[in-house]
């Protein structure tokens, strides 16, 4: 046996005998299969993740909106989309036009106009770009849907109010205009507006124009001046009737002309002593004389009144005055 036939040669033959070509090929196929399986599992995992994500998105899209306003909002959006292609219309589909008086309206895109009892509005323009109204008298409240396709404009009294989406009120009183904003922002323009233009936010208001003219009121009649009536004397005998003398005495007393009143009462007593007015005239004359401190003349007049026949109550008063 040569050296080549030693242990090394024997080991090579043992290896060749132990691992055949077929077995080696089978081992490589196993390795390749394991690699393929790992790749397939990775692809399947990615596909499963994508499917789960898609399912979640579909669930979110299909889930109904829990907000109770969602149906109305969607209806409003559809109406706004359709109405933007032409004039704005009433809720029943009739185009907004003509004159609005005293009755509130709701429009197809959700806005509303509420004139007050004196409100008088005329539609100036209505198309896909703008709605313009003229407030001719009274007032109105406007609730304009935000995000609409049209610009709103309200004219009145030399003032122009421009909005897109807000709630505001405009009122006219002659040439004076009051604008108040509840929500949103409006632009007020006009020659009488400070600086020609003002921006008003929620809670703000402005008055433009001269103060309203007060209604015509007839001036109160001047106090009627009572003509001074002179007491009748011997030199003034016309209408010599007790009632006329008594009337003269009454006017003189109210005007503070006590002496004239005493003269008129004395004329009744002297000229018409038998008249029913004479005793009372004498009694009244006596009291006026007392008020002037003319006691002696007063006593004579009391005595004359008793003589002419006073009513019992006055007779007692006259006697009491004489007894003092």
From TrEMBL:
It comes from the Bacteria. Residues 65-92, 202-245 are annotated as: Disordered. The chain crosses the membrane at residues 43-62. Residues 105-186 form the FecR protein domain. GO terms for molecular function: sigma factor antagonist activity. Pfam families: FecR (PF04773). Residues 209-224 have a biased composition (Pro residues). Keywords: Membrane, Transmembrane, Transmembrane helix. PANTHER family: PERIPLASMIC SIGNAL SENSOR AND SIGMA FACTOR ACTIVATOR FECR-RELATED, PROTEIN FECR. This is FecR protein domain-containing protein. The lineage of its organism: Bacteria, Pseudomonadati, Myxococcota, Polyangia, Polyangiales.
């Amino acid at each position: 046996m040569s050296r080549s036939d030693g242990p090394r040669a024997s080991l090579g033959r043992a290896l060749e005998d132990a691992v055949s070509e077929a077995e080696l090929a089978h081992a490589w196929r196993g390795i390749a299969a394991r690699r393929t399986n790992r790749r397939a599992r990775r692809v399947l995992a990615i596909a499963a993740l994508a499917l789960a994500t898609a399912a979640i998105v579909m669930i979110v899209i299909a889930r109904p909106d829990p907000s109770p306003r969602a149906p109305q909002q969607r209806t409003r959006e559809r109406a706004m989309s359709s109405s933007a292609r032409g004039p704005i219309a009433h809720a029943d589909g009739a185009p907004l036009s003509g004159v609005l008086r005293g009755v509130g309206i709701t429009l197809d895109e959700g806005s509303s106009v509420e004139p007050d009892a004196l409100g008088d509005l005329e539609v100036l323009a209505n198309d896909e770009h703008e709605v313009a109204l003229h407030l001719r008298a009274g007032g109105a409240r406007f609730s304009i849907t935000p995000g609409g396709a049209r610009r709103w404009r309200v004219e009145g009294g030399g003032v122009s109010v421009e909005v897109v989406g807000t709630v505001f009120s405009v009122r006219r009183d002659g040439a004076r205009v009051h604008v108040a904003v509840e929500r949103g922002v409006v632009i007020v323009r006009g020659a009488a507006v400070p600086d020609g233009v003002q921006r008003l936010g929620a809670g703000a208001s402005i008055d433009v124009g001269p103060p309203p003219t007060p209604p015509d009121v007839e001036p109160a009649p001047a106090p009627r001046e009572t003509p001074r009536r002179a007491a009748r004397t011997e030199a003034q005998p016309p209408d010599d009737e007790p009632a006329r003398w008594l009337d003269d005495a009454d006017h003189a007393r109210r005007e503070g002309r006590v002496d004239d009143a005493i003269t008129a009462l004395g004329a009744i007593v002297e000229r018409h002593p038998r008249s029913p007015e004479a005793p009372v005239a004498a009694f009244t004359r006596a009291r006026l004389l007392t008020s002037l401190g003319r006691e002696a003349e007063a006593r004579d007049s009391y005595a004359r009144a008793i003589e002419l026949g006073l009513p019992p109550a006055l007779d007692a008063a006259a006697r009491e005055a004489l007894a003092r």
